[in-house]
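Recap from last week: sequence in, structure out.
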Amino acid sequence: GGTREQQFLLRLLPQRSTLREIREAGWIVLADHADGFDADGRKLAFAMLEASEKRARTPLARGLVSVARGRLLAADLRYGERDFAQQRKVVAALRQGAMAGNAIERAWGALALGLACRDVEPKSRAVTEFVTDAQTLIARTLSAGRGDDEVNAAFAVAAGIADARQAKRPLGMILADRNRQPDLRGHAAISLALLGATGGDARKALLGALWDRRTPDLSSQAALALSVLGEKGEAVQLVREFRAAKTERRLAQLAHSLGQFGDLGAVDALLASAEDRKRPTLGRALAITALGLLLDPAGKPSLSLLSDGACYTQLTNALHEALTIL
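Predicted structure tokens:
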């Protein structure tokens, strides 16, 4: 069923004597390593989740079980090692989780449903129907425009994970609506980018969010979305925002987004910012960091620490690495 560690995890989680905190951490580990199990191991894991779900007494615990179930199902579907008909009970549980329960449970259910579809290439009619139905459910929920914004934020994330292209239009409407919560709009921006939404309405909504000075975090999410889309010429918008940015966090997030963008058209503007002695030292240093990210894609994973409101040590290490790249 897998390695000794995986077998130990499957024995540990259903036991009554296992502390709640350990069990919850175990479900996270199980979800994270779903692809590491073979077909028999995943079958045992599904049975273990069903048994231990009875002891999942909080929305968080039930949510973690649901996410683990979704990731295990996605692994099963990717490798095609079992008849999909055997998974009807799992599929029904995932759909129920996204449609019923309180707000927290529905949010977890949406994420689990999206994860169950991630990177799945339908190899049978039944699998095709499952993925299409899940994507449609996610899109319809977003289109309805009702309910808690936190639940809708989970569905927005799920749309990007599940490649629910039917959700492009409602995601664009959410992003353009200034009355919706910034967190929801930020998730909508990222999912639009993951879905490759480059149409006029999507671009207009993304640029509107980028220029929204009231909500810096939303603006940063829009910047990252634009960098993921990588449309030629859009780097100019990010450079303009970089020049106008005042806070360390904003500068760092935009430096990271410019690096993700990979548009060498931003090099001249970033060099000018780095050489401008009238700019604060931090702004010049982060312009150098963005150049390092642009010139070496392999450097992005460690330098991406800058997007999280880097502390002094992280910032220093990232700048040193950027200079080394250059």
